[in-house]
């Protein structure tokens, strides 16, 4: 038997990709599937957009009775002849709306926004019903009335309803 001489080559063996362990919690991924994520993220987006609309309308004098003539106003008045509003109150709604829209992009942020928003709106509604309507809010510089307390309570119910609906067990899911 004859041995063949091996010629040296400059070729390196092909590099194999480095296998990294994936940090995926399968149970968590199953619980927060796309259906659940869309309910919570769309819900946070909806609450944010509604709050943004209320805030922008609070700055537009055609929607605020008792305001200055012209397009923009910051004076106290009634939004849609129902809800007490002023410039600061409208600004707070705009900020909440922007936060809701920004936080609706990720599931955990949307859930956090809905929890915090629900608690804050519930506390505002309860405090408004329990105290003199001008007492608490006048300290903060906000113009509110009885209809605002109902609006805040309604926002809280919507936030908690979205959380409850988005956190329900999925059909066909195993324990």
Structural class: mainly alpha
- Spatial arrangement of strands, main beta sheet: 1-2-3
| Average pLDDT for all residues | 76
The largest sheet is:
3 strands, antiparallel
Pattern of helices and strands: HHEEEHHHH
> Any idea how many domains?
1
**Envelope shape:** elongated
Helix content: 55-70%
| Oligomeric state of the chains present here | single chain
Strand residues, percent: under 5%
Report the end-to-end length measured between terminal Cα atoms.
67 Å
Low-pLDDT ranges: none
What count of helical segments does DSSP give? 6
What is the tally of beta strands?
3
Q: Concise description?
A:
The chain is mainly alpha-helical and 175 residues long. Helices cover 57% and strands 5% of the residues.
Q: Secondary-structure blueprint of this entry?
A:
Elements: H1 26-31, H2 34-59, E1 64-65, E2 77-79, E3 83-85, H3 87-103, H4 107-130, H5 135-140, H6 146-166
What does this structure look like?
- The chain is mainly alpha-helical and 175 residues long.
- It has one domain (33-69, 78-166).
- The protein has 6 helices and 3 strands; from the N terminus they run ααβββαααα.
- A hairpin with a 3-residue loop joins β2 (77-79) and β3 (83-85).
- The longest helix is centred in the N-terminal third of the chain and has 26 residues, at 34-59.
Defining traits:
single chain, 175 residues, mainly alpha, three-stranded antiparallel sheet, 57% helix, 5% strand
């Amino acid at each position: 038997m004859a041995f063949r001489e091996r010629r040296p080559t400059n070729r390196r063996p092909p590099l194999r990709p480095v296998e990294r362990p994936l940090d995926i919690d399968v149970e968590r991924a199953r619980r927060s599937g796309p259906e659940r994520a869309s309910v919570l993220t769309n819900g946070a987006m909806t609450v944010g957009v509604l709050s943004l609309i209320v805030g922008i309308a609070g700055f537009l004098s055609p929607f605020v009775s008792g305001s200055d003539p012209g397009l923009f106003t910051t004076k106290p008045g009634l939004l849609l002849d129902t809800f007490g509003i002023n410039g600061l109150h409208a600004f707070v709604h705009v900020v909440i709306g922007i936060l809701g829209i920004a936080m609706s992009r990720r599931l955990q942020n949307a859930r956090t926004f809905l929890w915090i928003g629900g608690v804050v709106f519930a506390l505002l509604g309860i405090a408004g019903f329990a105290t003199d309507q001008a007492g608490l809010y006048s300290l903060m510089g906000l113009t509110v009335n009885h209809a605002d307390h109902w609006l805040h309570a309604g926002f809280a119910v919507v936030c908690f309803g979205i959380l409850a609906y988005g956190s329900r067990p999925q059909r066909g899911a195993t324990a």
